[in-house]
Amino acid sequence: MTRWWQRPWIVPFAAIVVIFVAFSIPPYLSFDPARSRVPQPPELGVAHFWLLVPHVLFGSVALVSSIFQIWPWFRRRHPVAHRRLGRVYVFGGVLPAGIAALTIGSLSPFGPATRASDVLLAVVWLYVTVKGWRAARQRRFGEHRRWMIRSFALTASIITNRIWGAIFVITLMPQLETTFHGDEGLLAWVASAATAWLGWTIPLLIAEWWLERDRSRRGSGTRRSAEPRDPVTAS
Predict the structure, then answer these.
(1) C-alpha dihedral, 22 to 23 to 29 to 30, nearest 10°
(2) Residue 211: what pLDDT?
(3) Is it the case that residue 11 has pLDDT exceeding 90?
């Protein structure tokens, strides 16, 4: 059996999550709208901040609890804790964070393309998570695993979103006076839209690729085990 320390990705992933959450949460724990990192759209004003606070806090719960949910050693050694943390992930993380995201995403100050991405992400995130939870309730654990891998990819996409954001700002900033005619707002809209779409579609596509690869590998193993063995070569 693979030991927990033989999963070299779990420690750096956990470290990234802790650092990300430690950086993201403080402005919203202050409950001071002036410290929000997202501009307030005129349609909502300060109410936007009070929707953003639960989204950030519940989203952080989903992100932190996902560390243990995707950790194979933890799932095998602590199945009861895995189930309980799964409820925290779904009901104390994804569902409230996703519902809040539907509102704040539809009123994003970064333009219609970003709004469309944010709303679609929230819908897909809620959908795959509920499908995974229902599959577990019906004891269809293989299906549960596949849906939750998709859910995890979307949960973790908030981190890749920040990476894409930095890449696009650095790439597009030299074109501010040429392509964007000095309009910083237009540059922000373009960078935000590209970031919003790539931030979650690429992790989801990677998850689908991994699931298909895993399914093919499992299928090949099943076929090999079912093949009759040659008595000559077997001996």
Answers:
(1) 130
(2) 92
(3) no
Q: What does pLDDT average to over the chain?
A: 87
Long-range contacts of 84-90 (CB under 8 A, 24+ apart): 86/133, 86/136, 88/61, 89/61, 89/62, 89/65, 90/129, 90/130, 90/132, 90/133
8-state DSSP, 235: -
The distance in angstroms from the start CA to the end CA of the chain is: 28
Considering only residues 27 and 6, tell me which one the structure prediction assigns the higher pLDDT: 27
What ranges in the chain are assigned the alpha helix state H? 10-24, 26-29, 47-69, 72-77, 79-89, 95-106, 112-137, 141-172, 184-226, 231-234
The pLDDT of residue 4 is 47
In this predicted structure, the answer to whether residue 226 has a pLDDT above a threshold of 60 is no
**C-alpha dihedral, 121 to 123 to 125 to 127, nearest 10°:** -150
* DSSP string covering 188-229: HHHHHHHHHHHHHHHHHHHHHHHHHHHHHHHHHHHHHHHSPP
| Amino acid residing at 25 | I
Whole-angstrom distance, CA of residue 155 vs CA of residue 68: 13
Whole-Å CA distances, 215 to 73, 142, 146, 220: 21, 11, 10, 9
Sequence-distant (6+) residues with CB within 8 A of 138 are: none
Reply yes or no on whether the pLDDT at 57 is more than 70.
Answer: yes
